[in-house]
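Consider the tokenized backbone below.
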């Protein structure tokens, strides 16, 4: 039994029951451990939650940073980032659900540790939008609002998207990029 096995199981339990509804006993049961044995690997649910959030943000930041660093126009970067982000959310739905819906359960100390990582991730998106404004590809008065709007749309996808549905996650991503770039108004 590894710490990664425990974190994987905890992500699934948190997704199914929510952080507050999940118990250490349920996590221990999910990895076939006695509750007392679980405490040899982790000290608390807060520790598990913070580790899961770190893991999720690290994975997403790695995916997005590689694209943001490419020497291509900002609109192409943003389109690729939207695709990569949605694919990562869909491919890691338990972990993604914890990141998107359970971060509010962090205690103050853990929250203070989490926020700089979250801000670093959001800054990648803002920087690409700002680059697009500088190169006159985009027109945007407030990249922070644009990023939060885009994140809200993409993050909510996790609540309704089903791989067996009518659209692939790539098609959903392309639709979001088109909406971001062209809006709803007819030109």
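A designed sequence for it:
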């Amino acid at each position: 039994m590894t710490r990664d096995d425990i974190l994987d199981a905890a992500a699934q339990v948190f997704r199914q029951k929510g952080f507050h509804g999940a118990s250490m006993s349920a996590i221990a049961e999910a990895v076939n451990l006695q509750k007392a044995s679980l405490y040899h690997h982790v000290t608390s649910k807060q520790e598990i939650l913070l580790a899961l959030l770190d893991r999720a943000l690290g994975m997403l930041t790695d995916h997005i940073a590689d694209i943001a660093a490419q020497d291509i126009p900002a609109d192409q970067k943003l389109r690729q980032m939207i695709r990569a982000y949605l694919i990562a959310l869909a491919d890691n739905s338990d972990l993604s659900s914890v990141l998107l819906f359970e971060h509010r359960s962090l205690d103050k100390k853990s929250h203070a540790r989490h926020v700089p990582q979250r801000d670093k991730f959001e800054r990648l998106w803002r920087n690409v939008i700002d680059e697009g404004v500088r190169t006159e590809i985009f027109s945007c008065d407030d990249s922070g609002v644009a990023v939060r709007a885009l994140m809200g749309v993409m993050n909510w996808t996790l609540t309704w998207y089903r791989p067996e549905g009518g659209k692939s996650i790539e098609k959903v991503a392309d639709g979001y990029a088109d909406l971001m770039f062209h809006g709803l108004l007819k030109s």
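The longest helix spans residues 108-134.
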